[in-house]
Amino acid sequence: MRPVVLGILSAFFFSITFILNRSMELSGGSWIWSASLRYFFMVPFLLIIVFLRKNSKDLFEHMKKHFGSWILWSSIGFGLFYAPICFAAVYSPGWLIASSWQITIISGSLLAPLFFMTINTPNGIKKIRMKIPFKGLGMSLLILLGIVMMQVELATKLSIKTVLFGIVPVIIASFAYPLGNRKMMELCNGKLDVYQRVLGMTIASLPIWIGLSVYGIGTEGLPSREQTIQSLIVAVSSGVIATTLFFQATELVKGDMQKLGAVEATQSMEVLFAVAGEILLLSAQIPSIISWVGMLVIMVGMILHSYLSQKKHVAHRSKKTVNL
C-alpha cells in the first residue's frame, strides 16, 4: 500500500509540470528553457540533500565506474522524457498532455521483456526474461479507457498538427521515462539510494540540457524572469519532490512487474490534479459529464489494480509461511 500512496503523492507534484509548462507557453516562454532550466535548478537542491546524507562519495565512484551507462540511460530517462513533454506544450493544452502521458501505464508494462530476473535454481543462478503482466495490463487498460473518455470530447476539435506534435512526443516520453528509470535501477542494483540515483541521473543528463540551452540562446534568447521563477517551482515540485517519491515507490517494488505496474498506474492521478489546477489557475473550462465519468473509471481501475497486486502479495506470503 505504501508504494501506491507514494505514487499518488508523486502524481500530485508531477501535475504541476503540465500546468506551469502550459502557463509558460501561453505567456510566450520557450519550451527549450522550460525543459533545461528545470534540470539546472534540480542540481543544487539534490547536491545539498546527498551531501547532508554523506552519500556523495559512493555516487561519484559508481558514476565513474559506469560512466557510459549513466550518460545513456539518464539521457533517455530524463532527456528523452522531459524535452518532448515541454515541446508538446507548444501545441496542446495541459489537460491533453497529462491525459496522453498516461500511456506510460501501457508503455511500462510493454517494456518488461527488455529486463531479466535473477533466480536461484539447482543448477545455479539463472537469469529469466520477464514477461508482460497481462492481468495487471488489463486493469491499466481500464484506466486508459477512463482517460480516453475524459479527452474525447475536446480531442475531436483538435487539428492534425496538434495531434502529431502534441501527442506523439508524449508517447515517446512515455517509453523513455520508465525505460531509463528501470535500467538505472538495474545498474545500481541497490547500491545507491533514491536521492543518489536522482542526483546522478540529473548530472549525467546535463550534456543534453547544456546543448539545448546553447541552441536556445541562439534561437530564442535568454528566458524571462517569469519563466525562470516558474521553472524553479517545477524543478522543486516535479524534479525533486515528485521524482524522488516516484523512484522511492518503484524501488520498493522492483523485481515485481505487477506491483511495478500498479505504482506506475498511480500516475493516472496526474489527470485529475491537472484538471483541477487548470480550472483554478488558468481558468480552464469545467469538465463535461463524460469527463467526470472518465475520472470515476480511472479511480475504479486504480483500486482494482492495487487490489490485485495486494492480493498476489498476501497469497505469496501465506504460501511462504505454509512452506516453513
Structural overview:
With 324 residues, the protein is mainly α. It has one domain (2-119, 128-317). 79% of the residues lie in helices and 4% in strands. It contains 14 helices and 2 strands, in the order ααααααββαααααααα. A two-stranded antiparallel ribbon has the order 1-2. Pfam families: EmrE. This is Membrane protein.
How can the largest sheet be summarized? 2 strands, antiparallel
3D shape: globular
Element-level helix/strand string: HHHHHHEEHHHHHHHH
How much β-strand is present in the residues? Answer: under 5%
Total domain modules: 1
Strand tally is 2
Keywords: Membrane, Transmembrane, Transmembrane helix
Pfam families: EmrE
InterPro entries: EmrE
Protein name: Membrane protein
Task: Give the SSE map.
Elements: H1 2-26, H2 31-52, H3 56-65, H4 67-88, H5 94-101, H6 104-110, E1 116-121, E2 124-129, H7 134-155, H8 160-188, H9 194-204, H10 206-219, H11 225-252, H12 257-265, H13 269-281, H14 289-323
Antiparallel strand pairs: 1-2
Helix pairs in contact: 1-5, 1-11, 1-12, 1-13, 2-4, 2-9, 2-10, 2-11, 4-8, 4-9, 5-7, 5-8, 5-13, 6-8, 6-12, 7-12, 7-14, 12-14
Pfam families: EmrE
Keywords: Membrane, Transmembrane, Transmembrane helix
Transmembrane segments: 31-52, 72-91, 97-120, 132-152, 158-177, 198-217, 229-249, 261-283, 289-308
